Description:
Layout: E1 5-6, H1 68-76, H2 80-84, E2 90-93, E3 97-101, H3 105-126, E4 134-138, H4 142-149, E5 160-162, E6 169-172, H5 188-204, H6 216-228, E7 233-235, H7 246-250, H8 256-271, H9 273-284, H10 291-299, H11 303-320, E8 325-328
Parallel strand pairs: 3-4, 4-6, 7-8
Antiparallel strand pairs: 1-8, 2-3, 5-6
Helix pairs in contact: 3-5, 5-6, 6-8, 8-9, 8-11, 9-10
Amino acid sequence: MNRRTGAVxxxxxxxxxxxxxxxxxxxxxPTASVATSAPSAGSTPAASPTPSAAATxxxxxxxxxxxxxxxxxxxxSRVFLEVAGVQGLHYRLSPRVVAVGNTTDTVLxxxxxxxxxxxxxxxxxxGEHAKDKYLILAAANDxxxxxxxxxxxxxxxxxxxxxxxxxxxxxxxxxxxxxxxxRVIDDDDYFRHVMDHEVFHADTLPVGFDDPSVPxxxxxxxxxxxxxxxxxxxxxxxxxxxxxxxxxxVNDTDDGYFRxxxxxxxxxxxxxxxxxxxxxxxxxVATHGSIAEEFHRATGADFTTTxxxxxxxxxxxxxxxxxxxxxxxx
Length: 330
């Protein structure tokens, strides 16, 4: 993934990746029953302070002093053993978020407060309300992020959504420093964009999602479109006017994420948000039709013709796009 320079604060940051298609093998989860509570609707307050988890417990278990609510949420996502295998865990709770990590209380508080702001915004856009609290893992170093995602290239990502177990979880590599020494959480605006992107993934991707017939431009483009509604990000230089291939999105070649998000924005502007989301949801169903078939069913328009129309107006779309956070492409 290309590093880019942000005009606000970070001089080198990478757009977030979703590890939706990654192959990951997690250890067997405990057989204890899982208890979850329905989250409250509407906006949520900032995270209330909770004690940090002890490094060890008197009975020698892997819980590290984590309360039942945290253990249950980790178990729901079938990631308890992976997380509990890392020492020095702390946690923070809010009405909509369970945050755990081998990082500082300050970092966890930042994660929870940002997520508290993001969740109602994204759920209002999608019309979907998660019944379980969002699980966000804060990795203090790259090796921990790799352990929790199974992704050896996790250093290239600002955030990773894992739609596995019985409920998705989000990993933020909070300890990774880019070439300028900055971290993803050091710029409030950019981190808000990253959190919105990952919450959209966690809110909309089916559990166990791994469908190669759904193009990467759709998976990541819709998340970028959603994240751009609050804090828009974009390149200083106009990229090619073409829908990115899977490889271009995965490697973010020629600003693949941005181009994908701009196409989704065009679809939403032309046909309306509800039809744009209907197309996205239809493609996430296991029995979906082709890209063109589902597009026509949702919008009544021809997919190829629509892509060509988007390409024709891309220069004007780019010129009128005024991002809140801008980068300089390599």
